[in-house]
Specification:
Elements lengths: L1 H19 L4 E10 L6 H13 L8 E7 L2 E4 L5 E2 L17 E5 L3 E9 L1
Parallel strand pairs: 1-2
Antiparallel strand pairs: 1-6, 3-4, 3-5
Length: 116
């Protein structure tokens, strides 16, 4: 389960930022996860909750997750669309195969709210 190692990395990053800011407590973190990132959202939240509780400065931290649906962009007709599955290789508007994934593979720590 790689979600546990991701949760540990997120906690380490948050701890580092909290130390830089001389924070007493981290109240909230905001994480962005794309639906096609390969990360199980529920497993990550479960792991993150457990990992955060192990650090005093993080034990009451609320983790907010923003899910990003996949969006494809067609370079031929310049249309953005939500693909029906990961195996979409043609634009649903014009049928061209010049598409690229614009959104949906994110895994980012967007922000944290601290108490100093």
């Amino acid at each position: 389960m790689h979600e546990l190692s991701i949760a540990m990395s997120i906690a380490e990053l948050v701890l580092g930022e909290a130390e830089k800011a001389k924070a007493v407590k981290v109240k909230e973190i905001e994480i962005e996860i794309g639906d096609w990132s390969g990360v199980d959202h529920e497993a990550l939240l479960f792991s993150l909750t457990a990992v955060l509780k192990s650090e005093a400065v993080l034990k009451d931290t609320i983790a907010n997750v923003i899910r990003r649906k996949p969006i494809m962009h067609c370079n031929s007709c310049r249309t953005d669309f939500t693909p029906p599955n990961m195996y979409t290789i043609k634009c649903e508007n014009c049928g061209a195969d010049t598409i690229e994934l614009k959104q949906g593979k994110e895994l980012s720590l967007l922000s944290l709210i601290i108490e100093d």
